[in-house]
Amino acid sequence: MVAPLSRLQAKTFPAMSSMLQEKENYEELNQIGNGAYGTVYKGRDLVNKGKFVAMKKIKIPLAQDGVPMTTLREIALLKQLDQQQHPNIVKLLDVVHGPRLYNEKCMTLYLVFEHIEQDLATYMARCPKPGMSSEIIKSIMRQILSGVDFLHCNRVVHRDLKPQNVLVSSDLRIKIADFGLAKIYDFDMKLTSVVVTLWYRAPEVLLGLPYATAVDVWACGCIMGEMYKLTPLFDGESEAEQLDRIFRVIGLPSVLNWPKNVSLLRSSFESYPQTCLKTVIPEICSKGEDLLMKMLMFDSTKRISARDALKHPYFNEI
Asked: Using CA atoms, how far apart are residues 38 and 57, in angstroms rounded to an integer?
């Protein structure tokens, strides 16, 4: 049985009760990955001709008034985005519930998405030498930035962009997935720093500063560099080491540009000069190098937006 909605929940999400359907319409097959706050399985739609789906299984602690409001907000956000049917955002097909686990005081919920063959991390791992062509990288980057621009226009910051959350179909259509950490943003919001996998985490997050949509653009830059190298651009094992790896490439910010009131002192890092990206990524073209440097600006207020990135000359030749 579905946990009841409180009066506030029912008023805020009047259609939510009808969204939660029985799981019997779907067959859970094999596990295909771990998403933010949930495990993802390949499944089968038993009603729709056995079509494959992706099922994100999450355990929800039951509040006294029923399903927690945070979970309802995430579902409502996904449904809101889905109404606009952007081609580069994964489609939410259904929301179904599993059993209530009384001993654990929680219930199981499944978010059912369209199934895409692989993610970008798998695609890169399977890519034969000499690696991905510049045309494919440009096509994938344009689609990722198009999806990110759509999110930002709807005041949504994804907060966990990485190759594992970028789905790639057999005909190279790109879908951004896993909105478990997504948030409706406000200007200069200061939220938990436990967002974005470490290798794709922007400097402002690593330093505990306020952040907004620019964190997604930084992650896009990291993904772009990784597609050329086929290895992570910055692969630190701690926040301090991650910043050190970043500064080895973009250079240590000047004293004037170092943010005030942060726990990590500028003197903690070596005084690296800015490195020419061509030495780090020999395969990148001059226009791609220029775009990547604009996405990897230390100062988030000077970092290029997703919309402006799409207008960059790098994409003119597609």
From this structure: 5
Classify residue 220 by burial, with Cβ atoms within 10 Å: 0-12, 13-18, 19+.
buried
Question: Annotated catalytic, 216?
Answer: no
| Residues in binding site for ATP | 56
Cβ neighbours around 106 below 10 Å, total = 15
Give the integer Cα–Cα distance in Å for 241 and 236.
5
The three-state secondary structure class of 48 is coil
Buried b (16+ CB within 10 A) or exposed e, 113-142: bbbbeebbbbbbeeeeeeebebeebbbbbb
* CA neighbor of 82 nearest in space, from 177, 146, 7: 177
Q: From the candidates 45, 94, 149, 160, which is the catalytic residue?
A: 160
Grouped pLDDT means (10 residues each) for the chain, 318 residues? 38 43 80 78 90 89 61 74 91 84 78 93 92 96 98 92 95 91 65 71 93 95 97 95 97 95 92 94 96 98 98 90
CA-CA distance, 155 to 270, in Å (whole number)? 37
Binding residue positions: 56
**CA distances (Å), 194 to each of 206, 258, 285, in order?**
9, 22, 34
In the numeric block, the tokens 């001709």 are attached to 49
Three-state DSSP at 60 gives strand
